[in-house]
Design brief:
The protein is built from 10 helices and 10 strands. The protein is α+β, with helices and mostly antiparallel strands and about 300 residues long. The protein folds into 3 domains: about 5-115, Double Stranded RNA Binding Domain; about 125-200, Double Stranded RNA Binding Domain; about 205-305, Double Stranded RNA Binding Domain. The strands form 3 sheets. It has a 4-stranded mixed β-sheet with strand order 1-4-3-2. The protein is globular and about 65 Å long.
């Protein structure tokens, strides 16, 4: 069951303290079930001056999404959708136990004031500073789409951790990446927190890109590498990684391109760190596309370094 709920919110007046928000109603109901709701920011749409947040709420096997002009609106919408889904199949006597909560839901549809949760970038920075870690790094991993409808993917790096965010503006994508990283750090088990050090990103030896490019040049002419070629770019890239002791990390992107294609990102733990994007009709074609782009980037890096064309 995956119901979708979208709230249209029009602020009128502050609700009475007697009324409960959908989030608090769901929280109280879940306490009786012995479960904990989980909220994830899944998308940030619209323009910078009129954003639309999309939150996903999960309670056990029940998942629903909510949309709103602020994070709090979207979370309330998602919470309400999940609550209704959880109580939809109850018997009459069981329904009586939640009638009061249902009656309170509709009166709390107001625009919440901006709070710390609406500034994930600042919250993340405070968290890493408090733990003695290095400040988060944000890089543009990829941008796609026509000029009037760009989609940006931002990579947030904190020590050895990486999280991504996408949006129609770089600022939106950065906020989502920061929010995802913030939630990841908060949910780390105690033993994982203790193992994070300032040297974690240097744990694996990084090979310089020019060394890779020289090795690649000895194997084949880069112009021969293509998604549908017999050279199999993924295999070639993996072979380079094994020979030179670096990692090739494939990460799927949930959202599709404007043309409906699958997307992925490849990270190369080289020096400097490299991130490339790929897309295709299938996930495998997206991998091959990204691998081809990675091989081309490696070769291009050497061409630029040597000053030749």
């Amino acid at each position: 069951m995956s119901p979708v709920s979208t709230l249209s919110v029009t602020p009128k007046s502050e609700p009475s303290r007697d009324f409960k928000t959908p989030i608090s109603v769901l929280q109280e109901y879940c306490q009786k079930l012995g479960k904990t709701p989980r909220y994830d920011l899944t998308a940030l749409e619209g323009r910078a001056h009129q954003p639309q947040f999309v939150y996903r709420c999960m309670v056990g096997d029940v998942t629903a999404t909510g949309q709103g002009g602020s994070k709090k609106q979207a979370k309330h919408a998602a919470a309400e959708a999940v609550f209704k889904a959880l109580t939809a199949g109850l018997l009459p006597d069981e329904t009586n136990q939640v009638d009061d909560n249902q009656n309170n839901l509709h009166v709390v549809r107001h625009v919440a004031k901006e709070s710390d949760e609406n500034n994930p970038v600042g919250a993340l920075q405070e968290t890493v500073v408090a733990r003695g870690w290095r400040l988060p790094e944000y890089t543009l991993a990829h941008e796609t789409g026509p000029a009037h409808k760009k989609e940006f993917i931002i990579c947030c790096t904190v020590e050895s951790f990486k999280e991504y965010g996408s949006g129609s503006a770089k600022k939106h994508a950065k906020r989502i990446a920061a929010s995802n990283m913030y939630n990841k750090i908060l949910n780390l088990p105690p033993e994982a927190k203790d193992n994070v050090t300032n040297q974690s990103r240097e744990a694996k030896s990084k090979v310089a890109l020019h060394e890779l490019a020289n090795s690649l040049g000895e194997r084949l002419v880069l112009s021969e590498v293509a998604v549908n070629s017999n050279h199999k770019p993924c295999e070639l890239l993996d072979s380079l990684a094994k020979d030179h002791n670096f990692e090739v990390i494939y990460k799927d992107i949930d959202c599709k391109t404007i043309k409906g294609q699958q997307q992925c990102i490849i990270e190369l733990t080289t020096q400097p760190l490299s991130v490339v994007h790929g897309c295709g009709d299938s996930l495998w074609e997206a991998y091959s596309s990204a691998a081809s782009s990675a091989l081309y980037f490696i070769k291009l890096f050497t061409v630029n370094s040597n000053g030749s064309v």
